[in-house]
Amino acid sequence: MAKRFISRAFTGRRQPDVAGRLPPGQYITPDFPVLSAGPTPRVALDEWQFRIEGLVTEPVEWSWEAFLQLPSRKFVVDIHCVTKWSKLDTHWEGVSVDTLLESVAIESQGRFATVYCYGGYTTNLPLADLTGSKAFVAYRYDGQPLAPEQGGPARLVEPHLYLRKSAKRVNGIRFMDADRPGFWESLGYHHRGDPRQEQRYRGD
Ligand SMILES: Nc1nc2c(c(=O)[nH]1)N[C@H]1C(S)=C(S)[C@@H](COP(=O)(O)O)O[C@H]1N2
Ligand SMILES: [Mo]
Question: How far apart are the CA of 167 and the centre of ligand 2, in A?
């Protein structure tokens, strides 16, 4: 009883149940900080496209209209930034990468991906981190269309890895036969970035 009273008085608001959900070294923020390298490009919806290319038997691309026709889902996930903030229970809507990959045949050597964006940002992921319900391309956040600052028109969300993998203003995925570092990965950040293992920097 007393313990409950103290913790409520201390926080002044209901705290989410964090047991087991907060990776090592992270703290919870109620805000949604915006972190982007460089200016935020505005992408017109009638020019927007999403492509899957590289080591696939035939590249595929969707216009905005076609993308909205794909089966979509709501996702509630915790996100973790390498700068140590985490946000629990973020609400997104979009298309699972598994669904997107149903439209292409990836060649057997195509085990690594570069996710590329409007504005030039890139990040790398092994195919295995994009499949098995681990990643989705979101176009709504908290019931609203995704603002450009938060990655609109659409962004990859890859919640089981540090947020730098969640490429904003995403333009496509290129499959390759080798793990090529993306923007932050080539500047000394860990190639994979598993928050549970605190893979912040190369060598962690
Ligand atoms: N296109 C693009 N996507 C990006 C980035 C970027 O600079 N450009 N930054 C990454 C990094 S390092 C982080 S931590 C998250 C930040 O997402 P947020 O601004 O929604 O918090 O976006 C990731 N996706
Ligand atoms: Mo980041």
Answer: 10
